[in-house]
TrEMBL record:
Organism: marine sediment metagenome
InterPro entries per UniProt: Bacteriocin_Proc_Enz, Nitroreductase, Nitroreductase-like, SagB-type_dehydrogenase
Protein name, as recorded: Nitroreductase domain-containing protein
MF GO annotations: oxidoreductase activity
A Pfam family assignment: Nitroreductase
Length: 511
């Protein structure tokens, strides 16, 4: 049997990395700060190609860009260095520096578990107006590209994606990768989930910015893993490609030169590294080995529609264009930062409705345009004007929330979010849950990757929508089974993928 089809591997990984009260409180894992990995991949031997730092905003309102980012923009644009610089800055660049007694902490455009920044971006492109064809790495630390290979290697990605239609015409393709150790240092084997969480928040930003710039972009998750990793010179035991994003549409791709080995020096991340075999096992089990497997993998899953609301429905009331704030997508990304504390104040139903309407489709090779999402949004409402506090499920087609259970659930929300104050104090907590069985049935183990990624992209959009609305947000981790139990019987059998808390930011508690 094809490895990807043996979905026991996913259940084993998923069960084995669930958080529970018991697993968290009995964990012996200590953070070894002496051995903390660098949050950057650095190639000391390669010349930096500085990216232009003029990053004028597009002027496109964030909420408009988010809403439109569900569909692939139409256009023929050929990106140049200036446009690439904007895309890279607003998806994975450094947007904030905070000084502390031991130095400086650098924060990025997209949120990331533990601020460990294990996701890197690579670029594979044809000759662009001001950049020669090649394979490049984006260095966030000095905002520069470095050329790993010279020449037009896009044909290798066309081959690896079995002629995926957007890849076959794209003048430039971005690739997200994760170096596991940079995240597993803290999160151990659960870091594999974070590969998709943390590339999802980057992709939410990227898709909003490409939409604002009318640059076609699509998320491609079906590819022969080994071929993409080899092109980028990754050691797949440590670092792997996760998703491709072809950009632009007007540049037919020819055959790539031969892809020889790359042996480029990179700065050691830490004194030593620890392998988590569970990560390598699930990654290998969800890998595709040849073009025919990729071609068969691509497509949409048929996930049963949500049953029509049986509980009391509450129609949503998103702000209209006139009422909605107009801050540009770039301004919103620049001021985004995870709320460290929420005030226990209500948000309005209009704010919650507008934030929820940013959840939508993704132009991707694992979906059909307009098709059903793999994840459903379940919500704990703590304080939203016009809604009784309680638990809800979101019906996007009806633009309504269905009340599942009325009640004050701040304590429960805090417990589900690993006993943190943030979800208890938030105005609303949005949990993305998926029914993994049909997803794995259709996509094999690789379905786990796309279910996590889809949830994270929509979680990233919620983050941005909250900041566009003048609110705060934070991603949160959770006790898996307790989340499903809390929303059951409606959520029976589903698995929690991602959690975002929304509310009014408050100053941190003193001390
Ligand atoms: C998926 C996800 C889960 C997160 N979980 C938590 C959490 O459980 N507790 C917390 O305080 N912050 C959490 N965060 C917030 C990160 O710590 C934060 O994104 C990171 O420190 C970078 O800071 P910034 O978002 O302000 O740029 C999470 C972020 C993401 C994306």
């Amino acid at each position: 049997m094809e490895t990807n089809r043996d979905v026991e591997a996913t259940w084993e990984y998923h069960e084995g990395t669930k958080h529970s009260f018991q697993s968290v409180h009995s964990s012996q894992h200590l953070l070894d700060f002496e051995n903390q990995p660098l949050p950057f991949k650095i190639y000391p031997g390669l010349e930096p190609i500085p990216l232009p730092r003029e990053l004028e905003p597009s002027g496109v309102p964030a909420l408009e860009a988010l809403a439109a980012s569900a569909a692939e923009p139409e256009g023929e644009r050929l990106p140049d260095l200036k446009l690439l610089a904007r895309l890279l800055h607003y998806s994975a660049g450094i947007t904030k520096r905070i000084r502390h007694p031991h130095g400086e902490m650098l924060f990025r455009a997209a949120s990331c578990t533990g601020a460990l920044y294990h996701i890197d971006l690579y670029l594979v492109c044809a000759d662009l107006p001001d950049l020669e064809a090649g394979v490049y790495h984006f260095g966030a630390h000095d905002f520069a590209l470095r050329q790993l290979r010279r020449g037009d290697f896009r044909g290798e990605l066309v081959r690896a994606t079995a002629d995926e239609s957007a890849v076959s015409l794209a003048p430039a393709i971005l690739i997200c990768s994760s170096t596991f150790w940079r995240n597993s240092w803290k999160y151990q084997a659960r870091a594999y989930r974070h590969c998709f969480w943390d590339s999802g928040t980057i992709l939410a930003n990227l898709l909003a910015v490409t939409t604002a710039r009318r640059l076609p972009a699509r998320v491609v998750c079906g590819f022969v893993d080994d071929w993409v990793n080899r092109l980028l010179g990754l050691e797949p035991q440590r670092e792997v490609a996760l998703a491709l994003v072809p950009l632009g549409h007007n540049s037919p791709v020819g055959q790539a030169p031969k892809v020889g080995p790359l042996a480029l020096e990179t700065t050691p991340l830490s004194r030593s590294e620890v392998d988590y075999p569970a990560i390598q096992a699930i990654h290998e089990a969800s890998s595709l080995a040849e073009g025919a497997q990729v071609a068969a993998w691509r497509g949409a899953a048929s996930v049963a529609p949500l049953a029509p609301p049986a509980g009391r429905p509450f129609p949503l009331r998103p702000l209209n264009d006139r009422e909605a704030p107009h801050d540009s997508i770039e301004e919103v990304i620049s001021r985004r930062g995870s709320s460290r504390r929420f005030a226990r104040q209500p948000i309005s139903l209009e704010q919650l409705s507008t934030a929820l309407s940013s959840i939508g489709g993704i132009a991707a090779d694992f979906r059909q345009s307009g098709g059903r999402l793999l994840n459903d949004a379940y919500i704990i409402v703590n304080a939203v004007e016009g809604l009784p506090p309680g638990s809800y499920v979101y019906h996007p087609d009806e633009s309504a929330l269905e009340l599942l259970r009325e009640g004050e659930f701040r304590d429960e929300a805090g417990d589900l979010g690993l006993e943190q104050a943030l979800p208890a104090d938030a105005s609303a907590n949005v949990f993305f849950l998926t029914d993994l069985a049909p997803v794995l049935e259709r996509f094999g183990n690789r379905g786990y990757r796309v279910a996590q990624l889809e949830a994270a992209i929509n979680g990233g959009r919620l983050y941005l929508a909250a900041y566009a609305l003048g609110l705060g947000a934070t991603g949160l981790t959770f006790y898996d089974d307790a989340v499903t139990d809390f929303f059951s019987p409606h959520a029976e059998g589903k698995s929690a993928m991602f959690l975002v808390a929304l509310g009014h930011p408050a100053r941190r508690r003193p001390g």
